[in-house]
From TrEMBL, chains A, B:
Its EC number is 1.2.1.41. Keywords: Amino-acid biosynthesis, Cytoplasm, NADP, Oxidoreductase, Proline biosynthesis. Catalyzes the NADPH-dependent reduction of L-glutamate 5-phosphate into L-glutamate 5-semialdehyde and phosphate. The product spontaneously undergoes cyclization to form 1-pyrroline-5-carboxylate. NCBIfam families: PRK00197.1, proA. This is Gamma-glutamyl phosphate reductase. Pathway: Amino-acid biosynthesis; L-proline biosynthesis; L-glutamate 5-semialdehyde from L-glutamate: step 2/2.
């Protein structure tokens, strides 16, 4: 018994800490929900100013984190801040402040025959829980997107960068205070214990409305498996480019090269190339050559390997999100073959068809059931910024509420306002 | 061991049955997602025609259910069909068929500086699981709403009316076949075991996207506690009417009387009356008299009891959804007092303010965080039909995706279509 009790108490303590964050967030959000656009913009400006004015303090905290870090170079690089990165972080906050206010938008309005006038109006979601790993910029990006959309945020930073996150959150909260806004609109889980993640996924005792995980597959898998509240996330981006029989060859080369190699490690990077058998002989060698010249490894099925030099692809390859300069290649029989392959392997993120045939494009855009479907465009455009949303807190492949890039509009819900003159229901 | 194994196997069998329904629903839905509005309307017309042509068979099944029923009169009344109710059920299907098709709506469209044209377009949610109790009309209502919105439905009927539900589903499926549509768009869980509900709440092995419970508090509580997939539901409708200092007395009497007594048992019925202290003396006696004359029991706080005859209300009363001709009454200090009471006790369903003061109304509509907020109108208008949605599958008080009445539009999600000319991302 004596060995168990301290652990139980500790978990309870952490649950209590997270629940308290939730209550404070809820109270602060009630205030923010009524703030004007100008008040929110002033708060964001003050937050950006504080990030700039506290650069030295934040960089010192970052140096301490880095000195204690045991992770490898990739993690260390993502975690490292300098004056330029901090200035960009402040600039990103200012970009969000310039966005149109998503709260209060009239989404629909109509009159009823009995004289009632009904409006559907956008309101904040409430409290957003953001669980992330080592990227310090998530601290500021998520906070500013939540604030502009009228939501409070509870941040859970990776433990190796908790000091950096604390310094950034201190700056953001100082900015909120400067602007006369409740500081508890932005809160950071102050403990490293993993039980805190569990408490957030359980909804923080009613204090969190939705969870956004920002990080690798292990994190997202845990979040999706354990969360008792809704989650905006994508587990993977297994994106396809389909080169149709009517594809222009140069366009097919350029788009495929960009879709895979511009940044092979982002979720919108293509992982599989499908080539219509009708043009495989004419198009595939040129595409393969361009990719190989750019340093991409190709893994093809038998029909693809007969047309260009590449490694042998297994069925597992077509189910793999490489996030690396590797591309699976299959030759398929027409649009139907491509649709069948995509239906089997797609993660529902983004797929693109290259074709000059409008009818084929329309069928592809209609029948592929992914968050984003494209015609004659690189899958790397699957991004909130590229969509014109200004910024995104993530990309969601779920079907509920938010699908695709999650920007400030997607961080709102709505309510109905009914205006009457004393009507009673017969 | 021997006592446990058969039970395990049985649960596994039921899980397998539900998972199979999910796979069949998913396949059928893929077909429906591509159907034209005309094809969906033809299918709904055929389903309505089959309900009418198979009236005798359905009534016979209903008679068998009723003969075996052990439940009380209220349940028996809800479960009882006759030719008139069946004709109304068919008519309700035809009403849904006449609705605007929610699939394919362009929700937004914009050009990007790089020439990309982006559309957000409504698509079906997928497969809806509906868990209900004894009302046979839910079988047809839910099926038609799901079909019109491009979704497949898996129905779980209350066990005492499974025979009736089976006969109705047989008719609906015959109608689907008549129209050349996949019958598995409408499926009924064929077993009475409660483990089937658990299997649905777990998502039917990926075969169900969202659960809609239709029934009493016990059912909704279980669904909200156990569901691993999103739920569209309201646990209760603890709705408030607030009579503000600037309320017209006759309007306050008429709206309160209607909000409570038109049908005291629906979720949009008012459960609490709040009266501004400034007009309590002038307005409350008239309201109380009208309610008492209509057979309503009043339970008031001390200030209310000082002005009109009523029972004593406890704190528990203000937290109680009576669904009966009983009304809690409190005198509050101005708009702030009403907002504080509502923030504490509301279930987030529907609240209404009665006032001639536009500024007070605007503050109420802005600050009350419920799915539906009203000005000078009866809370009994909280209904998809009254909102002009044609019909509703339920009312949701959650914040995600659907809030308020859930009609065919709320049963859709969306995807992004991106139209390019070969653009690559710099």
């Amino acid at each position: 018994m004596s060995a168990v009790r301290p652990l139980d108490r500790e978990d309870n303590e952490i649950e209590a800490i997270v629940a308290r964050l939730g209550r404070k967030a809820r109270a602060a959000q009630g205030h923010l929900a009524l703030a004007s656009t100008e008040e929110k913009r002033a708060a964001l400006a003050a937050m950006a100013a504080r990030v700039r004015s506290e650069t030295e303090r934040i960089l010192a905290a970052n140096a301490t984190d880095l000195a204690a870090m045991t992770s490898g170079d990739a993690m260390r690089d993502r975690a490292t801040l300098d004056a330029g990165r901090l200035d960009a972080m402040a600039g990103a906050i200012e970009t969000v402040a310039a966005l149109a206010d998503p709260v209060g938008r009239i989404l629909a309005a109509w009159d009823r025959p009995n004289g009632l006038f009904i409006e559907r109006v956008a309101t904040p979601l409430g409290v957003i829980g953001v669980i992330y790993e080592s990227r310090p910029n998530v601290t500021a990006d998520a906070s500013s997107l939540c604030l502009m959309s009228g939501n409070a945020v509870i941040l859970r930073s990776g433990s190796e960068t908790l000091g950096t996150a604390t310094a950034i959150v201190d700056a953001l909260r100082a900015g909120l205070a400067d602007a006369g806004m409740p500081q508890d609109l932005v809160q950071l889980v102050p403990v490293k214990d993993r039980a805190a993640v569990g408490a957030m996924l359980a909804g923080a005792d009613g204090g969190i409305d939705v969870i956004v995980p920002r990080g690798g597959r292990t994190l997202v898998e845990r979040v999706e498996a354990e969360a008792k509240v809704p989650v905006f996330a994508h587990l993977e981006g297994l994106c396809h480019v389909f080169v149709h029989a009517e594809a222009d060859r140069d366009m097919a080369v350029a788009v495929t090269l960009n879709a895979k190699m511009r940044r092979p490690g982002i979720c919108g990077a293509a992982e599989t190339l499908l080539v219509d058998a009708a043009v495989a002989r004419s198009h595939l060698p040129a595409i393969a050559e361009a990719l190989a010249a750019a340093g991409c490894t190709l893994r093809g099925d038998a029909r693809a390997r007969a047309l260009a030099p590449m490694e042998e692809a297994t069925a597992k390859d077509f189910a793999t999100e490489y996030l690396a300069p590797i591309l699976s290649v299959a030759v398929v029989d027409g649009l139907d073959g491509a649709l069948a392959h995509i239906a089997r392997y797609s993660s529902g993120h983004t797929e693109s068809i290259i074709t000059a045939d409008e009818a084929a494009a329309t069928r592809f855009l209609t029948e592929v059931d992914s968050a984003i479907v494209m015609h004659n465009a690189s899958t790397q455009f699957a991004d909130g910024g590229e969509f014109g949303m200004g910024a995104e807190i993530g990309i969601a492949t779920g079907r509920m509420h938010a699908r695709g890039p999650v920007g400030v509009e997607q961080l709102t819900t709505f309510k109905y306002r009914v205006h009457g003159k004393g009507q009673t229901r017969p």
